[in-house]
Predict the 3D structure of the following.
Amino acid sequence: GVDTLLRIPPSELKTHNKRDDAWTAINGKVYNITHYLPFHPGGEKELMRVAGRDGTKLFMLTHAWVNADYMLDTCMVGFLTGERS
Ligand code: HEM
């Protein structure tokens, strides 16, 4: 639920960059994409390019029409913050 969402700085996001522990940020929201990886129509390799970092630009470049907010709602772990917040 919303009460369990985290505030996640880039340095923490960066640690979740593995195939079995992959997070990404899109439009300020951080998602655990680990379990979505095998289902991505564009393939795991492409999706892993945004693991551990802010994927907003790459996501928008490839398919701005895809509603990630809706698709990944249950995978949301928190909000991307600045390094010191
Ligand atoms: C296709 C979701 C990230 C590359 C798709 C499609 C969805 C999707 C739903 C099908 C779209 C359609 O047919 O209109 C997502 C989600 C992402 C994500 C939820 C983030 C969590 C990325 C990233 C890349 C990428 C970061 C590239 C680095 C592609 C490509 C296709 C695709 C190349 C086209 C596959 C094809 O039609 O052959 N993605 N995507 N995606 N995605 Fe992603």
